[in-house]
Amino acid sequence: MLWRGIWDGGLDLGGVGNVLAESRTWKVVWQTVLQAALGTAGAILLGVPSAYILYRVRFPFQKVARAAATIPFVLPTVVVGVAFRALLGRGGPLEFLGLDQTVTAVVIALTYFNYAVVVRTVGTMWQTLDPRSAQAARTLGASPSRAFLTVTLPQLAPAIASAGAIVFLFCSTSYGLVRTLGSPGYGTLETEIWRETTAMLDTRTAAVLSILQVVIVILTLIVSEKLSSRTAGRLNLRSHHVSPIGKSDAPAAVFTGLVLVVLITSPIISLVARSLTVDGEWSLKNYRLLATSGQGFSGGSSVLEAIGNSLRIGLVATLISLAIGVPLALVLSRQVRGPLRTGQSFLSGAILLPLGVSAVTVGFGFSIALDSPPLDLRNSPLLIPIAQAVVALPLVVRSLTPTLSSIAPGRREAAATLGASPWRVLATIDGPFLVRGIGVAIGFAYATSLGEFGATSFLARPDTQTLPVMIVRLLGRPGGDNYGMAMAGAVILAILAAGIMAAAEAARKDPQ
């Protein structure tokens, strides 16, 4: 894909320059960066006070509140987009605000989706901070706000910055949210890549835009890695400083409660309610229609067939990502020195790239790289699972590597000294820890594959439509039945994704 952008029978920097000289190119870049910056700011402003309440103080039903805060992040982006359409769109409780298919709606949805990232990252670090520093400042006469700004906030700054970099990355590559919530004329780098490829048939321009996105992603990843390494030193502390909730915590508690009720749960409630109503009355009609292809379609898959496709393709993609991810996690978890350490760091960064690069770019790359011999996979049933496995691979590796890294190197050396073969060391030392994390890895991979939309939208054929692709297709068609079916399909997709993640967490085992 990168090569297509600069080569046309020879090095073609002039073609690249023509694309970069267009005002629309930089308008799209600006809209992408601005959208990501606003979404990041919103997630931090809402997430930091919530991190304090959910992780620094103790109160009844705290685990329930934490679970509610993480709901958005386990949902596919298409579900989040459709949920906000149900809340803000026609027939929704907040339709009167006029925010449907606006940039504001996209930014609110980005804040919603990434809220959990800030809460978890900042809250986990906040637990490790020794409260005596802030208490000393208060003893010396500092007000609560001054103690927070001068003592606590600087200590939290690495975690906030690290979370912000990750959120910016996610916000700049939120294709599903923009497609489902944005207006037809609104464009980001991702939607422009899709438009140039599918509507304009201009793969050269799409490739150059993909290069611009890769540059943004790489810069963000570099910042994220540096900030994450600074945060990791704090997170390794095992002491947790948690105190009972008090009167002084009331403002933050009320604020967090409002965020959880108004922002986090209301879109999901609106989505479920909208899927169960037809012409203002409660009905299961939208769910019964899922066996059809909807209004205005000339043939094609039904939603039920799309669900079957998603489950089958997701299973194959999960197996592929595990087959590649488990060996990579074993390699990255080993403590090495010298040149091997450099190579290990490079490999770790390379694996992270699909997590940051838009799935649209991944799908575009597959569509032009695997459409001719010797790797002509255009008609292969493995094409979509392979693309989805690439998207899920970083999550598989990242979920397994910390668990395997916690093994003391001396345990492997002691087993080898006692005569154990490398395979037996792997089975008896690494094996129990691998079992501990494999459930979560499977959950991440399967849930990611089920909700994957960007790459699949490029590669799906009429007979291989997945559920996210079908939902967006229904939203783009006029007619109340199509709209209601999209809502019902989104509810089913949310249940599948959340259920798989819950089962994976429940299956987690501790090593003996």
From TrEMBL:
<keyword id="KW-0997">Cell inner membrane</keyword>
<comment type="similarity">
    <text>Belongs to the binding-protein-dependent transport system permease family.</text>
</comment>
<dbReference type="InterPro" id="IPR035906">
    <property type="entry name" value="MetI-like_sf"/>
</dbReference>
<feature type="transmembrane region" description="Helical">
    <location>
        <begin position="67"/>
        <end position="88"/>
    </location>
</feature>
<feature type="transmembrane region" description="Helical">
    <location>
        <begin position="103"/>
        <end position="126"/>
    </location>
</feature>
<feature type="transmembrane region" description="Helical">
    <location>
        <begin position="33"/>
        <end position="55"/>
    </location>
</feature>
<protein>
    <submittedName>
        <fullName>Iron ABC transporter permease</fullName>
    </submittedName>
</protein>
<keyword id="KW-1003">Cell membrane</keyword>
<feature type="transmembrane region" description="Helical">
    <location>
        <begin position="313"/>
        <end position="333"/>
    </location>
</feature>
<feature type="transmembrane region" description="Helical">
    <location>
        <begin position="345"/>
        <end position="370"/>
    </location>
</feature>
<keyword id="KW-0813">Transport</keyword>
<feature type="transmembrane region" description="Helical">
    <location>
        <begin position="382"/>
        <end position="401"/>
    </location>
</feature>
<dbReference type="GO" id="GO:0005886">
    <property type="term" value="C:plasma membrane"/>
</dbReference>
<feature type="domain" description="ABC transmembrane type-1">
    <location>
        <begin position="29"/>
        <end position="224"/>
    </location>
</feature>
<feature type="transmembrane region" description="Helical">
    <location>
        <begin position="205"/>
        <end position="224"/>
    </location>
</feature>
<feature type="transmembrane region" description="Helical">
    <location>
        <begin position="252"/>
        <end position="273"/>
    </location>
</feature>
<keyword id="KW-0472">Membrane</keyword>
<feature type="transmembrane region" description="Helical">
    <location>
        <begin position="147"/>
        <end position="170"/>
    </location>
</feature>
<dbReference type="InterPro" id="IPR000515">
    <property type="entry name" value="MetI-like"/>
</dbReference>
<keyword id="KW-0812">Transmembrane</keyword>
<feature type="domain" description="ABC transmembrane type-1">
    <location>
        <begin position="307"/>
        <end position="504"/>
    </location>
</feature>
<keyword id="KW-1133">Transmembrane helix</keyword>
<dbReference type="GO" id="GO:0055085">
    <property type="term" value="P:transmembrane transport"/>
</dbReference>
<dbReference type="Pfam" id="PF00528">
    <property type="entry name" value="BPD_transp_1"/>
</dbReference>
<feature type="transmembrane region" description="Helical">
    <location>
        <begin position="433"/>
        <end position="460"/>
    </location>
</feature>
<feature type="transmembrane region" description="Helical">
    <location>
        <begin position="483"/>
        <end position="504"/>
    </location>
</feature>
